[in-house]
Amino acid sequence: MRMRRKKHGAERIAACAELLIVPDGESPVNPAQYFPIPAPIHLEIGCGKGDFAVGMAQKHGDVNFIAMERVPDVACIALEKAMQKKTERPDNLRFLIGDAQHLEEWFAPHSIDCIYLNFSDPWPKKGYAKRRLTYRAFLERYRNLLTEGGLLRLKTDNQGLFEFSLEEFEALGLTVEWITRDLHASEKADENVMTEYERNFSEKGQVIYSAWVRF
């Protein structure tokens, strides 16, 4: 996601420090250090401007959500959005700024119950397949992070990425529990929490592809 650099971005992120997870680089994140009430851990990789993470935290007070974003200036927007909504939701949302390449450094094995990939970069050029977050090397990382029976939930507007993802799931012998090529016309539409990107593209008539994969 490209955007104009935020003025005083570091200071604005620091002002939201109570919602920020900062790994120490030596040991995995301890959820008890950040969440006042123990609960299943759900991780969104690439949270963008935070609409999905904030909405899910409001809707599911019995789950602790970690929203991860690689780009600090984008994470800044998500953090400020969450701070504004703090009085309207349980204290069950935290953010982590970093790249998915480091997931296994930050989280203990089999410590996450659900992973969300919402509108990840499709990296459409053929030579960039290994960068896609549903490439098999990433799926193996998720397998190590998810609890037994854990779930990966994918949403994308990119048909090419969706078909590629289904092929990767099959290659690793993963069970696709639920699939749709038009999420907003499906039986799960009412429970779907939209990202800002999703809302904008849906209003233009773009269909949304989704798959739930059981590990």
Q: Quick one: CATH class of the largest domain?
A: Alpha Beta
Shape: globular
Largest sheet: 8 strands, mixed
Taken in chain order, the helices and strands follow as: HEHEHEHEHEHEHEHE
Q: Count of DSSP E strands?
A: 8
Class derived from helix and strand content: alpha/beta
Mean pLDDT: 95
User: What's the total helix number?
Assistant: 8
Fraction of helical residues: 25-40%
Q: What is the domain total for the residues?
A: 2
Question: What's a concise summary of this model?
Answer:
Helices cover 31% and strands 22% of the residues. It has 215 residues and is of the alpha/beta class. Strand 2 (41-45), helix 3 (51-59) and strand 3 form a beta-alpha-beta unit.
Write up this protein.
- With 215 residues, this protein is of the alpha/beta class.
- It folds into 2 domains: 61 residues, Vaccinia Virus protein VP39 (Rossmann fold, 3-Layer(aba) Sandwich); 93 residues, Vaccinia Virus protein VP39 (Rossmann fold).
- 31% of the residues lie in helices and 22% in strands.
- It is built from 8 helices and 8 strands; from the N terminus they run αβαβαβαβαβαβαβαβ.
- An 8-stranded mixed beta sheet has the order 1-4-3-2-5-6-8-7.
- Strand 5, helix 6 and strand 6 form a beta-alpha-beta unit.
- The longest helix is centred in the middle third of the chain and has 13 residues.
- It is globular, with a radius of gyration of 17 Å.
- The two termini are 29 Å apart.
- The mean pLDDT is 95.
